[in-house]
Amino acid sequence: MAEDLAVGGGGGAAAPDPDGPDGVRMTWNSWPRSKVEASKCVVPVAASVAPIRSSPSLVVLPYSPLHCKPPCAAVLNPFARVDFAAKIWICPFCFSRNHFPPHYAGISEANVPGELYPQCTTVEYAPPPLDAAAPPPLPVFLFVLDTCLIEEELGFVKSAMRRAVGLLPDQALVGLITFGTQVHLHELGFADMSKIYVFRGTKEITKEQILDQLGLSASGVRHGAVAGAPGYPKGPQANGFHPSTSVNRFLLPTSDCEYTLNSLLDELQMDQWPVEAGNRPLRCTGVALSVAAGLLGACNAGTGARIIALVGGPCTIGPGMIVSKDLSEPVRSHKDLDKDAAPHFHKAVKFYDNLAKQLVNQGHVLDLFASALDQVGVAEMKVAVERTGGLVVLAESFGHSVFKDSFKQIFEDGEQSLGLSFNGTLEINCSKDIKIQGIIGPCTSLEKKGALCADTVVGQGNTTSWKMCGLDRSTCLTVFFDISPSERSNQPGIPNPQLYVQFLTNYQNPEGQMRLRVTTITRTWVDGSNTEELVEGFDQETAAVVLARYISLKMEMEEEFDATRWLDRSLIRLCSRFGNYRKDDPSSFTLHPNFSILPQFIFNLRRSQFVQVFNNSPDETAYFRMLLNRESVSNSVVMIQPSLISYSFNSPPTPALLDVASISADRILLLDSYFSIVIFHGMTIAQWRNMGYQNQPEHQAFGLLLQAPHDDAQMIIRDRFPVPRLVICDQHGSQARFLLAKLNPSATYNSAQEVVPGSDVIFTDDVSLRVFCEHLQRLAVQS
C-alpha cells in the first residue's frame, strides 16, 4: 500500500467540474441509517455548499416559488410527487399534500413548469419587484483608510483607490474615512471646501453617539436637512436613505463625487501626530470601524454596503487595540496566546464580536486589506470579517501585486467579476431523521431554532437559518449533519431509501435585484453495516477538506486540542474500518480507490500551515483559516496538498510527485500551494539561463521551456482571489525553501549518501510519506 500511496498525484484526481451543477459535495453520498453507524464512519456526515456559484446550465424562473405548508415551507422541486389531474403536489420532506394555485392550472405531463424538470435540481427565482417603478437599491462602498503609513506606502494606497473609484459604477455610493491618531469622516457632499468630522481615537463610541454627532439620529436632524421642508423629498428614497437624514452628505454617487474624492486623495498626507522615538504610531483602527458601521446604520434596511478597510499596522490605542505604543512590547505570538500572555487579545476580540453583531443586524459587510510586514490584528478582526461574509487579503506591502491585483478584482465586472452580492440568508430543509449541527464558513446563525436543530453544535449552530451579509460566486459553506432516527423511523415495513436536503438562498445580486436560489439534492440511506455501499459513496477530497475545517475550528475553540494526534487516531480508525486486510498482517493491507489518496491528504494536512501554526504569526494563521473556510473543495485541496508540475526537454508539462525526488538539475517545477505559486529552476537550467542561452536563436526551445511555467502561473493567478504571491527561485537559492517546505522528505540529510547527483535533500527529522503509511498499515490491522 505504501507504494500505491507514494505515487499519488500532487493534488488528487479531479473531474472537470467536481462540484456538479448543484455546487454541493458530500463526504458520504450514501448515509448510514443510525447515529451509532454514523459515528463508526469516523468522517462526519457533512456537505460543502456553494450557495450562488455560477453555472452555465442554471435555469432562471421569472416568478415566485411555491412553498409547502408551514412549518415545513420547502419549495416545490423535481423530487415532489405530482398528481396532474387533481393539481396536487406532495412534499418529499414532510409528505404534506399541497394544491397548486390557479395560475398553475395549465400544467400537465406535457406542460411541466421549470422547477419540476428532473435536471433542474438547482433553479433561481427572479420574481418581478413589488414596485416596478422603484430603482433597485444602490450598493454602498465606504473606504476606511489608514494614514499611519510611510510616504511610499500611502502613495501606493492612493493610486489603488483612484483606480478603484474609476472602476465603480456611476450610481454606486461612495464614502471616505481616514484614520491615524484620530478618525476623520469626510463630508464629500460639501464641495466648496474640505469638511471633516473628527472623532477621538482613544474612546469607544456607540452607534447612537456617532449618529448624534453627525446629525443623523432619529431624534434630531442637523440644520439644513429638515424633513418636510420645501424641496426636501418625502417618503423612502431610492438611494436607500431615510428622508429625515442627511447621510447623503457623506455617501454620494461616484459620478457626483469622483472629482472631490480624487482631490481629497491628492491632498491626503501621512498622519501628522508626532511619533516619539521607541514608539509605534498611534493608530485607532477600532474607532474608525465603529464610525464606519455607525454611519452605515443611517441607511435604510436592505441597503447592501461594504466597509473596505485598508490597514497598514497594528491598532495601538482605543478599542480593538492589540499592542501598546511602546516598541519594547512585541505583538502577540501563538506562544503568547497559548500561555494567555497576550493582555489585549480577549478584549479586542470581544470588541470586534460586538461590531460583527451590529454589522450583521444592519446587513453590512467588513472587508479587510491588511498590508504590512508587522501584524495588524487580523486574528482579532477575524470574527467581524467572517461573520459578515467579508473578503480578506494579507500582503507585505500596498505596492505588492498581492494587494494591488486583488483590490482591483473587487471592482471589476464582466468575466473577471467576483459577483459580489449582498443581504443573503440561507435556510436548510431536511428529510426526517436528519438534523443540522451547524455551519463552518462566512455566515452568522440567526438563532432560528426548530425540530431540525441537533443537540451537538458545530460552528454557527442552533438554527436552520443563517445570515450572509456578503457572498460571491466562490463562497462556500460546510454544513454538518446529525443522523437522529426516531422510533417511528424504525417501524417494520419498507423504509424510504432516499433522503432529501434543500438549500434556499435569498440574496441581492450585484445589480440590486432580489433572487432566490433553490438547490434540492437527494442521496440514499444504506445499512451502516454494509461497508461496500458506504465506500462507493465516499468523496475523499471533500472528507480531507471537512476534516481540515473541523480541526481548525477545534484548535481555535479548545485550548488543549492536539490536532496531529486527533488526525492520526481518526485515520487509523477509518482505515481499520474500511481497509481490506488480514488481521495482524500489514503487507495484506489495501484501500479502495475512493480512500486511497486520503492518507496522503492527511499526511500533508498534518504538515500544513493549518496544523503546524508555530511557523506563522496569529494573523497569518487567521488569514489561512478564513480562506480555507470559504473556498471550494477543489481550491481547499490545493491549500492542503499543493499541486506540482514538471517541465523538461524530454516531455510535455506533466504532474509530478509532491516529493523531493521530483527535483532534478534539468527540470523546472511549478508549485501551486494556493497562497503562493513557486517557479523553481533546477541547477543546470538556472546556469543556462544566467548564460543567456534563451536569447540565442539556436536555443529557441530553451527559451520556450523557460517561458512555459510563467504562462501557466499567470493563468492560475488570473482566476484566483486573493491573488497568490509569485516566487521565482533556483535550486540551492535562498527562496527554494518555499518549494522544499511543501515536499515529502523522502531524502533527508540522514540518507544523503543515496542521493542522485543533481537532486536534493531536505534538512528535517520529519517522517516521510512512506514511513507514515507503514506505521498506518501496522496500526490499522492490529487485532
TrEMBL record:
- Region (Disordered) residue ranges read 1-24
Q: Which biological process terms from the Gene Ontology are attached to this UniProt entry?
A: COPII-coated vesicle cargo loading; intracellular protein transport
Q: What is its main location?
A: membrane
Specify the signal sequence span. none
Write out the biased-composition intervals (Low complexity).
14-23
Q: Which residues form the Gelsolin-like domain?
A: 652-739
Q: Which GO terms describe its molecular function?
A: GTPase activator activity; zinc ion binding
Residue ranges of every copy of the Sec23/Sec24 beta-sandwich domain listed in the record: 422-526
Cellular component per GO, a single term = endoplasmic reticulum membrane
Question: Could you tell me the keywords of this UniProt record?
Answer: Cytoplasm, Cytoplasmic vesicle, Endoplasmic reticulum, ER-Golgi transport, Membrane, Metal-binding, Protein transport, Transport, Zinc
**Locate the Sec23/Sec24 trunk domain: which residues?**
137-410
Membrane topology annotation: Peripheral membrane protein
Gene3D superfamilies named among the record's database cross-references: beta-sandwich domain of Sec23/24, Sec23/Sec24 helical domain, Severin, von Willebrand factor, type A domain, Zn-finger domain of Sec23/24
Keyword Transport among record annotations: yes
What sequence ranges are listed for the domain Zinc finger Sec23/Sec24-type?
A: 65-104
Among its keywords, does the record have S-adenosyl-L-methionine? no
Location relative to the cell: Cytoplasmic vesicle, COPII-coated vesicle membrane; Endoplasmic reticulum membrane
Q: Name one Pfam family in it.
A: Sec23_trunk
Domain Sec23/Sec24 helical as annotated: residue spans:
539-637
Q: Which family does it belong to?
A: Belongs to the SEC23/SEC24 family. SEC23 subfamily.
* Role description: Component of the coat protein complex II (COPII) which promotes the formation of transport vesicles from the endoplasmic reticulum (ER). The coat has two main functions, the physical deformation of the endoplasmic reticulum membrane into vesicles and the selection of cargo molecules.
**Name by which UniProt lists this protein:** Protein transport protein SEC23
Q: Which organism is it from?
A: Musa troglodytarum
